[in-house]
Amino acid sequence: MRAGWNSGLMVQKNVALVLGGGGSAGHAWTIGIIAGLAEAGLDMTEAADLVIGTSSGATAAAHVRSGIAPADLLAAVLAEPVQPAGQAQARTTRPSQPPAISMETMFERMREIGAAATSAADLRCAMGAFGLECDAMRGPVAEAQRRAMVARRLPRPEWPDRAMIVVAVDAHTGELAAFGRESGVDLADAVTASTSMASTIGINGARYTSGGVRSGENADLAAGYATVVVVSPFGGWREAPVPEGQFEGLRRFPGFDLESEVEALCAQGSRVVVITPDTESRAAMGTNQMDLATRIPSARAGFAQGKLEAGRVILA
Length: 316
Description:
This protein is of the alpha/beta class. Helices cover 40% and strands 14% of the residues. It has 11 helices and 8 strands. It has helices at 23-39, 44-47, 56-64, 70-78, 103-116, 120-138, 140-153, 187-194, 258-267, 279-285, 295-309, and strands at residues 13-19, 50-54, 164-170, 176-179, 201-203, 206-210, 225-231, 271-275. Strands 1, 2, 3, 4, 5, 6, 7 and 8 form an 8-stranded mixed β-sheet that branches. Strand 7 (225-231), helix 9 and strand 8 (271-275) form a beta-alpha-beta unit. The chain is globular and about 50 Å long. 49% of the residues are buried.
């Protein structure tokens, strides 16, 4: 099942904006990039005919499509209360609930799942099963809390009028779920699904996990667009060593890694521009992208980088 997939999007269009996952830091950095591009004269909130969001990129996509000016999106991030380092790791569940799985345990399990997987489809199903296992540990209250948290962070409760895809994966089958305005799924449910790494959410009788278990960017869904701009917080690790303490990312099989997706888009005639964190942005994002303390420095670094990247983003 490709939930919410609109085959009409496959006709030749002009510009697609792809926003990859990257935790709290990645979301803030992405907003900074969008604001920096706009500051340099390239407003992707207006230029993009389609926005595709995966994991934290799904939340960023909802902001980009909200009708709020890029400068105001950035200002909202910069106005957030400064969080002490490690705040994101604080326990927020009620004492009667089971403790959340630790980041270290989650990353170790993801490494084990990746090492054991024999194909991309096998990896997706195994990650879906892991999410269901974690759900059983946490209980149903945790799912409702996650959904409520996502809803609070969205700038608008409704789907935007302009085309947007939120990517998730069916936790049982591993199949792609590309939610859009015509899918009949609430925006908050779709974004919760896309951001549900090591967890799932129930939608219309099915269980969905993060679109990031399929691909960090899912840029292949932009096929048919003349220009594809990919903003990838976790991209570019092949060009720089992973710093100590940084999770190296979920294993990617050929065809579902960013390089393969870009190569396929280019072979189909698209011009693809990929923006990944530069040295300053990597330093700002740190080694724990889920730490809320990284958001403001990541947004500032993204804004500075976005202004520099604008010269590379030439729209057809």
